[in-house]
Specification:
It is a single chain. The strands form four sheets. Strands 6, 9, 10, 11, 12, 13, 14, 15 and 16 form a nine-stranded parallel beta sheet that branches. Strands 1, 2, 3, 4, 5, 20, 21 and 22 form an eight-stranded mixed beta sheet that branches. Strands 17-18-19 form a three-stranded antiparallel beta sheet, with no helix packed on it. It has two domains: 4-60 and 354-383, Roll (Urease, subunit C, domain 1), CATH 2.30.40.10; 63-345, Metal-dependent hydrolases (TIM Barrel), CATH 3.20.20. The protein has 385 residues and is of the alpha/beta class. A hairpin with a 3-residue loop joins strand 17 and strand 18 (302-304). The chain has helices at 37-42, 81-91, 108-121, 158-168, 184-193, 207-215, 237-244, 261-270, 317-326, 331-338, 340-345; strands spanning 4-13, 18-27, 30-36, 49-53, 58-61, 63-68, 70-71, 74-75, 96-104, 129-130, 133-136, 172-177, 197-200, 218-221, 249-253, 276-279, 296-298, 302-304, 310-312, 362-365, 371-376, 379-383.
Amino acid sequence: MRSAVCLHNATLLTGFSAMPNCAVYIKKDKIADIYSETRFAQKKFGSDVKMIDVKGSYIAPGFIDTHIHGIGGYSTDDASIRSILKMSKFLTQFGVTSFIPTICASPEKELMEKIKAILSAMGKEKGARILGIHLEGPFISQEKIGGQEKTGISPVDLEYLKRIISAGKGHIINMTVAPEIKHMRDLALKCLEAGIILQAGHTNATYSQMIEGMQAGIFHTTHMFNAMRPLHHREPGTVGAVLTHPELSCEIIGDGIHVHPDLFALLTKCKPINQIVLITDSLKYAKAKIPENIDLYFDQCFKRKSDDTIMGSGISMLDGFQNLIKFGVRLEDAVQTATSNPARIMHQNNIGSIVPNYDADLIVMDKHFSLQMTMIKGKIISSYL
């Protein structure tokens, strides 16, 4: 039985640079070494090593989606272990090797059921690994509700927070909150004690309230430009705070609809590239047919039939990555936003970069950025080579 794999004749997109004419040596579930093609030619490998010539393709770290509600007809809203596991398997078709299932603002009973389903699915994945849970609420603004349901939104309630943290059993990675709501500082400090990363979103925070939020440890932001107080020349608002403070990192939806393509150029000029995280914010019917009885229609993104409110995207991380390239983002930078940045900002060690001793979560793409292979912890999940 072969215990190692070597992918060679590749350009490595490492998560921080591009390296042409290279090979990646994978032993068990880890990246064991990286070779130049010259070193690779000189290396003597044993018969237990499976050699794969990728014929000049790109090898990149697997994509990490830190904000995803559903895909392929499955969703966290289903509160079902089966749905979470189906999402895990489906995501590998689009180069995702790990993800953070995202729960929208929900009434407490529903919220707890959704948390329980995700926790029960963890460790049973046949595809992309579940890193933990992202709670997009419930402590968000009624004024910037977007596609959220009002019934799921709550004022700051520290006892409710305590129940949420207890239910999460240490697996709540990140939580979207509105920095401006009353008693948010008290809630933020409790979240930080629990190791939860806070991000400002669905917020009407003024510029000064965003600065106060930073003082309480809120340094990441949810779907930049969407469902937040916009930039104004006399009140920079939430958007102005993110654009002017390099300490603040931000998500951005890569469908070209939620955010105009030209704004990606502005964002990359204003912010260090290592502070931008590509997300999908995709919904249940992304890459699937919408049933007729659902109050949604798809017009490049999902909108509510009743009032045309944008509800979420229908893209995959592969779509978003390809879009960034079309929008003029440098190849190395686009890879970074989808891999090493989310790993670092979400405090996930040993994933997101092609570095020795990191998990062998890798994808292979051809020169047109079509997916050719997905590998998770050294196991080839799908291959079109």
